[in-house]
Amino acid sequence: MRNIDWNMVEETKEFESLKPGGYVAIIKNAEDNPDKEYLKISYDIYDGEFKDYYQNLYKAKEFWGGNFYRSYKETARGFFKAFLNAVKQSNVGFVFNNDETNLRGKLVGLVLSEEEYEANDGTVKTRLYVSTVTNVENIKKGNFAVRPLKKMPEYGLNDNSDQFFNNNGFTVDNSKVNSENDPF
User: Do the Cβ atoms of 46 and 13 come closer than 8 Å?
Assistant: First the structure.
């Protein structure tokens, strides 16, 4: 093993994980993806017990976990406007002007909820996600609701699996199968 002066190494300390709930957050960065029409918002916890949570996580694990996305596609613009209004209500004098850099350093209220996901090893785990964006005042007053655990759909086959593959009441017109008009 290489010779390391262990007296010069700071021990990594365990720190408590974030829990589902409402948090006042500070936007650290907003990155535009114009081709897909969304902003990637990077945030950290602004105050309270978990202040600077993601900064501390980054120092310990070199991983920034405080991100969420806001689409500004035509079909999602109402949701994006709700996000902008939450930022505006939380920051006196805030003006967006279609410039994502104006979001940096702004406060916003976030509600974090849990969802299941499949880990690389195939196990089901839980993680936090931003379920609601609101203004800071709603967070401070406790005027928010944490959504229940979002469960993964169960796609596994069970005893009735054959029924799934028996056309589910639909019939196939074999005269139309593999016709010259099919795109494949």
Answer: no
> Are 104 and 29 in contact, with CB atoms under 8 Å apart?
yes
43-99 pLDDT, tens digit per residue, is 999 999 999 999 999 988 888 999 999 999 999 999 999 999 999 999 999 999 999
Q: What is the pLDDT of residues 96-113, one digit of tens each?
A: 999 999 999 999 999 999
The model's pTM: 0.76
Q: Give the 3-state secondary structure of residue 108.
A: strand
Distances (CA, A) of 121 to 8, 12, 29, 135: 35, 25, 31, 38
71-107: b (≥16 Cβ within 10 Å) or e: bbeeeeeeebeebbebbbbbbeeeeeeeebebbeebb
Tokens at residue 126, please?
């839980």
